[in-house]
Design goal:
Elements (H helix, E strand, L loop, with lengths): L1 E3 L6 E3 L11 E5 L5 E7 L5 E7 L6 E2 L9 E6 L5 E5 L16 E5 L7 E2 L7 E6 L5 E6 L10 E6 L7 E4 L8 E7 L7 E6 L9 E5 L11 E5 L21 E7 L4 E7 L7 E6 L4 E5 L31 E6 L18 E8 L20 E9 L6 E6 L4 E6 L20 E4 L37 H4 L1 H7 L39 H6 L26 H7 L9 H12 L17 H14 L47 H10 L5 E7 L2 E8 L2 E5 L12 E5 L3 E4 L5 H7 L7 E2 L11 E2 L12 H15 L3 E2 L3 H9 L84 E7 L20 E4 L15 E4 L8 E2 L3 E3 L2
Parallel strand pairs: 23-28, 37-40
Antiparallel strand pairs: 1-2, 3-4, 4-5, 5-6, 7-8, 8-9, 9-10, 11-12, 12-13, 13-14, 15-16, 16-17, 17-18, 19-20, 20-21, 21-22, 23-26, 24-25, 24-27, 29-30, 30-33, 31-32, 33-41, 34-35, 36-41, 37-38, 38-39
Length: 943
């Protein structure tokens, strides 16, 4: 309809009215105002793109060459071509499988020469041309991240090159950005409607953004309308705008200050056309009783944005990627140069229609999609990389250390057009930062080719890629005959069940018993991890119990290099089980053929992601049977007795020694700003260090003498205390199991919780700061000091006894409370009733309940005889000792903070079962690694 004159009294005339009451929408006016694009169902009820003259004549249908495809949401390009979205990709929204996904395509002005540009997991929406000639659009994505906050604004060139996030990447706010349009004559400002996930659809609040000021959450939000003079605050909520009024749709900016927009002022108002401005005025332009007036567009000529020349080379099937410095950006902050040796290159196999891919389908609690390993490419010493990837393919990169373990997870993908060179400055570098320049090692030769991963590209299947490793090294013992995890791959898992109704599906839970047992010992992103950029090494394989168990010498099991690679790759891919859908989930039927046909027709890609590969190049997928490896015993049963006079001792004796070790057993260190550290005196003495029944790295036992008494913090350093030293530090959150709507999991960053995700290097810097502040010498305890203090004269695994003692009064360890990680999707404080092993699966000792889900404020549990709290559990703790084999020798340099190598960590945490929290239990991490459950406490020399 056309309104003239533009006023409430103006007359509405019909430009075009379809037959049978069909809907007309997605209106786009040509720059010359002579033609109009719109979407409308055809006679067969498939959505198509139509064009009509500006005077209502010359109607023609532009799309429709495929009888089973919908096409809609088109816009004109400066060069005369047309962008539109289409379901020809034959994929669907994974959480339900019911909504066909439309991604971006381009065609000529006659509806011919169609080429696919989007290769995304989920919808592309609202394409529009920006002032510089690029195309803005909304892209919904969630691979191992929170799906209800991830409809972000993207951009690409009209030829499909340069696909990058424009606003909202790694952001919880806004949940969705719809109908974005550039503000005329401004280099960077845009206006858009922001909305939630569940609740009202697409409508929401009107916000002006300036990505030049920031692109994360509310950093670039200039103004909410209405909201003059008020700072735009980021709100983390699922149904973000349901209670917000007025509501808006379809903004059309006239200038930096004025906007035409569809608006519903109150719940009982009609949708009318308004003139909105940044001064909070809403002036009615037109209402029509009984109707909603939508999509206002001035019927006038507009300036044609510049034409960006095509950069694609359609004769090629590949593209190039150039990374100038992988260490630039926040993704690998703090990781030393030279650490990254290669990149793992993966792609995805997205869901077909009518195939629910809820978080318990491809694997337990994720991933959402089937992942396929393309292979690896090298990273040069200066951090640069240059390599070729398949074009028209969603590709994700994982930077790997020298052991092939992912140091960061991309949790997204990039897509390059044929012949394109896709350039990145680093890993999660800011788009507003100055690009790096200069010659790099990667530019000295030709682009590297991907080295395939044990054969042809295929969906990662636990049965094919991992179970052969388990059969060779594990099933000899873990065969179902003992009270240990049954890791057999030829036995089906227990019947699937869940307390979450929307995760029930006929396709879910089709796993082997061995898989459901083994995945429990792997910490990984799950279906929905923290949406913010992860800490480097957040889910590094070394933080997971399965790898730690093997590193510590589990029954002398020693994996070969390929076995390690397969296990690590499985962990880094978020522990998938299925590598195809047709083998065990559901046959996609004709969709498999149609996706392949149309991908070849519109993208030149001939790929059947459902194909089951033949034998590969590795020994584990060669098709040949492998002999089981039976490990040799590591030692004879029992440990020789070690004479240690005066040890162990009872509580009374331990306290007596403390009382006589100095004038006072307690002192307080003032940190300023109302904060202090309580210290307790640890008397000199000797003890037997190690665990008689512990892992190989806890043996052989040794008598160790603590020559001098020392002061030790009674409690772990808290977030509040550490923030006095580093106000920017954030211990962040732990994501809950399964999906989450408007919540961020469980906080680890409350003021009185122990600081975590703090590296050894940072803790040593804190000690130097504290030493300078007080004039006393602070450090972290040596490994020997730590164990001696934790035992407080005892020889038992815990200061309060052995592993069968109810630990709940004494320590915060993995217990019944850990089941609460399976909680209500809208409220993580509400545990699921009747949760199943598919809902809550963390290893734990369910006999006891210590009351702590995550780490808690220190002092809740009883201290040991020397007044030390939380030496077992809560947060694991750094020591200043370099991790080396036993017997412990303080004179071999391990206690020198300057010695190189991994640093010893003690005490276990809220995530660890009692065995992993014993006084003798040891782990180790790299000194620059921020670990999710590792904090520290300080020690000070006596005078």
């Amino acid at each position: 309809m056309v309104l003239s004159p533009v006023s409430p009294e103006g007359r509405l005339t019909t430009l075009y009215q379809p037959e049978n009451g069909r809907f007309v929408g997605d209106v786009d006016l040509h720059f010359g105002a002579e033609q109009i694009l719109f979407s409308m169902p055809d006679e067969k009820e498939h959505w198509q793109v139509f064009e009509i003259g500006g005077d209502g004549s010359g109607l023609r249908q532009l799309t429709g060459e495929q009888p089973d495809v919908d096409s809609y949401d088109a816009c004109y390009l400066p060069d005369g071509k047309i962008f539109f979205t289409s379901t020809a990709y034959f994929n669907a929204v994974p959480c339900t499988g019911k909504d066909d996904v439309a991604v971006l395509y381009v065609m000529d002005a006659e509806g011919k020469n169609i080429r696919q540009l989007g290769f995304d997991q989920d919808h592309n929406w609202c394409p529009t041309v920006s002032n510089d000639g690029r195309v803005l659009y909304t892209r919904w994505e969630y691979t191992d991240s929170v799906h209800c906050h991830a409809r972000l604004l993207f951009q690409m060139n009209p030829d499909g090159t340069g696909q990058t996030a424009h606003y909202g990447s790694n952001s919880y706010w806004p949940n969705a950005i719809f109908y974005a349009r550039p503000i005329p004559d401004h280099p960077s400002k845009i206006v858009a409607v922001i909305g939630g996930h569940h609740g009202v659809g697409r409508m929401g609040e009107l916000v002006v953004f300036d990505p030049a000021q920031g692109r994360h959450e509310a950093d670039g939000a200039v103004q909410r309308i209405p909201g003059y003079g008020k700072k735009v605050e980021a709100v983390f909520k699922d149904q973000l705008v349901d209670a917000s009024w007025p509501k808006f749709l379809h903004p059309y900016p006239l200038s930096e200050n004025y906007f035409l927009v569809s608006c519903k002022r109150q719940p009982d108002s009609q949708w009318g056309i308004y003139l909105a401005d940044v001064f909070d005025n809403l002036t009615l332009v037109k209402e029509l009783p009984g109707f909603a007036l939508l999509e206002p567009i001035p019927l006038r000529k507009t300036a044609v944005p510049p034409v960006i020349p095509d950069k694609v080379d359609l004769t090629r099937k590949d593209a190039a990627v150039y990374i100038s410095d992988i260490y630039a950006g926040s993704g690998l902050k703090g990781v030393p140069r030279g650490t990254i040796k290669s990149l793992r290159v993966i792609t995805y196999h997205f869901a077909y229609r009518d195939m629910v891919t809820n978080p318990n389908t491809i694997g337990v609690d994720g991933p959402w999609d089937i992942k396929r390993v393309l292979g690896t490419v090298p990273v040069y010493k200066d951090g640069s990389a240059r390599f070729r990837i398949p074009a028209n393919t969603p590709v994700s990169l994982q930077p790997l250390d020298g052991e092939g373990k992912a140091m960061q997870l991309m949790r997204s993908w990039m897509t390059a057009m044929p012949g394109e060179t896709l350039q990145c400055a680093g890993c999660h570098e800011s788009q507003n930062s100055v690009p790096l320049t200069g010659r790099t090692l990667a530019l000295e030769g030709s682009s590297d080719e991907i080295t395939p991963w044990y054969g042809q590209t295929r969906g990662f299947s636990y049965r094919r890629e991992v179970q052969p490793v388990i059969d060779r090294y594990c099933v000899g013992c873990h065969d179902g005959s003992k009270l240990i995890p049954d890791l057999r791959g030829d036995v089906d898992a227990a019947e699937y069940g869940t307390a979450l109704p929307w995760q029930r599906s006929p396709h879910a839970g089709k796993f082997s018993l061995g898989y459901t047992q083994l995945h429990r010992f792997v910490r990984r992103p799950g279906s929905e991890s923290d949406l913010h950029v992860l800490e480097p090494m957040e889910f590094h394989a070394d933080t997971t119990e399965l790898v730690q168990l093997l590193q510590k010498g589990h029954h002398n099991v020693k994996l070969d290099a390929e076995a390690w690679d397969r296990l690590i790759t499985w962990i880094d891919l978020n522990c998938p089980f299925h590598g195809t859908r047709s083998e065990e989930l559901k046959d996609p039927g004709s969709q498999r053929r149609r996706r392949r046909e149309l991908l070849k027709l519109y993208a030149g890609v001939d790929d059947d992601a459902e194909a089951v590969p033949g034998p590969g190049t590795g020994i584990y997928n060669s098709g040949q049977p492998l002999e089981p490896v039976v490990p040799k015993p590591t030692r004879a049963a029992g440990q020789p007795s070690i004479d240690c006079p005066g040890w162990p001792c009872d509580v009374t004796e331990a306290r007596g020694r403390q009382q006589t070790a100095g004038p006072s057993p307690r002192r307080t260190i003032d940190l300023g700003e109302g904060q202090s550290v309580e210290m307790v005196l640890i008397p000199a003495g000797q003890f037997v260090m190690g665990g008689p029944a512990g892992a190989p790295d806890e043996q052989p036992l040794a008598r160790v003498k603590i020559e001098r008494s020392f002061w030790m913090a009674a409690r772990e350093i808290t977030n509040r205390q550490f923030n006095l030293f580093d106000p920017t530090h954030d211990s962040r959150v732990e994501s809950k199991n399964a999906t989450q709507y408007g919540v961020q999991g469980y906080p680890a960053n409350l003021p009185e919780q122990p600081v975590v995700r703090v590296s050894w290097n940072e803790t040593m810097a804190f000690c130097r700061w504290l030493s300078k502040k007080t004039g006393q010498r602070f450090s972290m305890p040596t490994e020997a000091q730590w164990e001696y203090a934790a035992r407080a004269g005892t020889a038992t695994p815990f200061f309060f006894g052995n592993g069968d003692v109810d630990f709940s009064p004494f320590a915060n360890m993995a217990d019944a409370k850990l089941a609460e990680f399976a909680s209500d999707v809208w409220d993580s404080s509400k545990p699921l009733a009747n949760a199943t092993s598919y809902d809550e699966w963390f290893p734990k000792d369910s006999r006891f309940n210590d009351g702590g889900v995550l780490s808690v404020e220190s002092g809740r549990y009883r201290p040991n005889a020397w007044g030390l709290f939380d030496m077992h559990g809560n947060a694991a703790e750094w020591t200043c000792t370099t991790y080396r084999p036993y017997p412990y020798d303080p004179g071999d340099g391990r206690e020198d903070p300057a010695s190189a190598g991994r640093k010893a960590v003690r005490g276990g945490s809220w995530r660890d079962r009692p065995r992993r929290c014993e006084s003798s239990f040891r782990l180790s991490y790299l000194p620059y690694q921020r670990v999710y459950n590792v904090g520290f406490r300080v020690v000070c020399e006596t005078e």
